[in-house]
Amino acid sequence: MRAAACIFQRPGYGGPALTDRERSEVIQLNDRALALEPADAFVVAWASVIIAFASGDIERGSDYADRALTINPNLSNAWNARGWISLCIGEGERSLEAFDHAIRLNRTTLRNRERCLTSGVAQDRGPSQIWSEAAPSQGHSETIVPIFIDRGAP
Questions:
Q1: What angle (nearest 5°) sits at the alpha carbon of residue 77, between those of residues 73 and 82?
Q2: How far apart are alpha carbons 130 and 126 in whole angstroms?
Q3: What torsion, rounded to 10 degrees, do the Cα atoms 24, 30, 31, 32 define?
Q4: Of 63, 74, 87, 105, which has the highest C-beta tally within 10 A?
Q5: Could you say which DSSP state residue 35 is in?
Q6: How far apart are alpha carbons 48 and 39 in whole angstroms?
Q7: Residues 56-107: pLDDT tens digits?
Q8: How far apart are CA 8 and CA 49, in angstroms?
Q9: CB 151 within 8 A of CB 22
């Protein structure tokens, strides 16, 4: 899963947008990790983000975020996944609640809530407008790449 996550997050850290080949590789690595560890909340939480944002299947990603929270309701990464996915499907209040829960579990996730608020949730903007405003503006990426991983996690 870490290989998929590293490639997937590159645009969010100033790297170039993923090529179609790289996006396919991320999806393949994601599917492999899910097949190997379907009951690992960390893997399932990451899978939810990759499915939603790399594959473009936001509803399926949402289902995986819920599954990760069922497996481990104390995993801040799963709450972050729920927050970003909720934001992009227009569930602003649910997004903020998820980020608040993640913050209670891990203070390093505070920046995700701040990015959510500056993305338009507080102004009741629609998900497509939030999506375009939250995406990096230097042309590096066409999607939101959430700051998602707790760097101290195994």
A1: 75
A2: 6
A3: 110
A4: 87
A5: H
A6: 13
A7: 899 999 999 999 999 999 999 999 999 989 988 888 889 889 988 888 888 7
A8: 10
A9: no
State the maximum Cα–Cα separation within the chain, in Å, rounded to a whole number: 41
Give the three-class secondary structure for 129: helix
pTM, two decimal places: 0.73
Chain CA centroid to CA 129, Å:
17
CATH topology of domain 2-134: 1.25.40
CA pair distance 89, 7, nearest whole angstrom: 24
The DSSP code for 100 is: H
Give ∠ CA 129-76-41 in degrees, rounded to 5.
105
Query: How long, in residues, is the chain?
Result: 154
Predicted confidence (pLDDT) per residue in 115-148, tens digit? 655 555 444 444 444 444 444 433 333 344 444 4
CA geometry: angle 33, 112, 25, nearest 5 deg: 30
Query: Would you state the structure tokens that stand for residue 20, as one six-digit string?
Result: 């179609």
d(CA 64, CA 60): 6
CB proximity list for 110: less than 8 A, separation 6 or greater: 103
For residue 40, give the amino acid letter: D
CA distance 54 to 144: 10
